[in-house]
Amino acid sequence: MAAAEKKDASELTGVGKKRTMAVTASAYNSLRGQTVGNPSIAAWGDRLRPGMKAIAVSRDLQRMGLGHRTEVKIKGLPGTYLVLDRMNKRWRKKIDIYMGTDRAKAMRWGKRNVEITWFEKQDVAGNVQQTAPES
Q1: Is the residue at 126 inside a domain?
Q2: Does 124 map to a domain?
Q3: Considering only CA atoms, which of 83, 93, 70 is closest in space to residue 42?
Q4: I need a surface site. Which of 7, 78, 94, 102 has the fewest CB within 10 A?
Q5: Residue 55: which residues within 8 A CB-CB, separation 6 or more?
Q6: Is residue 66 part of a domain?
């Protein structure tokens, strides 16, 4: 079990500034037709497997410190999630929750407004780190 899957919501820790924000949350799967290329490989090359607590983030959230492997608490859901994927640049203030290959579960989730909490990743000078340039 991954470290992020073992943590309770109260265990979300970090060294940067703690951020909380309301976002739109949808769900996605590792299925052909929902992704470009291999449906089990995320944007930064991480392998997605059913059961993982992973999310994709819109690029504006990435610029706000929600970079690769950032731990995120989604209010109302147990545990913490890791940012392992990013969304198309057209999306703003949006996350996509990974739900393995369970398409019915993703459809039941639909689209919801949720509150997320994370700690910004910062470099030694205290600047918010961006993990990859926008393309």
Answers
A1: no
A2: no
A3: 83
A4: 78
A5: 72, 74, 81, 82, 83, 84, 85, 95, 96, 97, 98
A6: yes
Distance CA(58)–CA(87), nearest Å, equals: 5
- Residue 91's alpha-carbon distances to 82, 87, 119, in angstroms, are 19, 7, 22
Contacts of 76 (CB under 8 A, 6+ apart): 114
Residue 5 and residue 72 in contact, taking contact as beta carbons nearer than 8 Å: no
Summarize pLDDT for 50-82 with one digit per residue, the tens: 999 999 999 999 999 999 999 999 999 999 999
- pLDDT, one tens digit per residue, over 19-45 is 999 999 999 999 988 777 888 999 999
pLDDT over 90 (residue 12): no
How many domains does the chain contain in total?
1
Q: Is residue 127 in a domain?
A: no
Q: How many other β-carbons are positioned within 10 Å of the β-carbon of residue 1?
A: 8
18: domain CATH number is 2.40.40.10
**pLDDT-based confidence at residue 132 (cuts at 50, 70, 90):** very low
Residue 86 in this model has a pLDDT that exceeds 80: yes
The whole-angstrom separation of Cα 42 and Cα 48 is: 7
